Amino acid sequence: MFQGETAITVDDKGRLAIPTAYRELVADACANRLVITYNPFESGCLWLFPYAEWEKVRDQVNGLSKVKAAHRDMQMKLVGAAAVVEPDSAVRILLPASQRATTGIEKKAVLLGMGNKFELWSEQAHLAKIRQTIGEDEITDDMAELQL
């Protein structure tokens, strides 16, 4: 569904415009309702889900046992921090200030289409991550089978 990398500008009020290439897809996928939450695996990154996709993720995460600390951490970062947003008349969404501050997302950011969701990276975190290479010792069996 979503793919590609787009440089994004966040305005002084914390709003970003949904790129033109994604506007129709977002409208069709979720009637313009998105959910923004933390990426629990990478600092400097937020996840943006179409609402229907989010409901599946939310239910899976909430279904985890509350006994394990890692489960509670994931529930806090994903479900507890989730915010439903809808584009305004200028097709902009408002990023929660706490999420911007925690991830370091400021004026310049990078939006990645990742299939069922978007990732919104701070420019610095994205540059650091994209410059990292995958070493031979990190290649999994599944990766080794890819025909790249």
Automatic annotation (TrEMBL):
Share an example GO biological-process annotation for this protein: negative regulation of DNA-templated transcription initiation
Provide GO CC annotations from the record. Answer: cytoplasm; nucleoid
The molecular function terms of the Gene Ontology recorded here are: DNA-binding transcription factor activity; transcription cis-regulatory region binding
Main site of residence?
cytoplasm
Which one Pfam family would you cite for this protein? MraZ
Classification via PROSITE patterns: SPOVT_ABRB (PS51740)
Q: Where in the cell is it found?
A: Cytoplasm, Nucleoid
Keyword list (alphabetical) reads: Cell cycle, Cell division, Cytoplasm, DNA-binding, Repeat, Transcription, Transcription regulation
SUPFAM superfamilies named in the record: AbrB/MazE/MraZ-like (SSF89447)
Q: Where is the SpoVT-AbrB domain?
A: 5-53, 82-125
**Annotated family:** Belongs to the MraZ family.
- Give the NCBIfam families listed for this entry: division/cell wall cluster transcriptional repressor MraZ
* Assembly description: Forms oligomers.
Protein name in UniProt: Transcriptional regulator MraZ
Q: Which organism is it from?
A: Dyella japonica A8
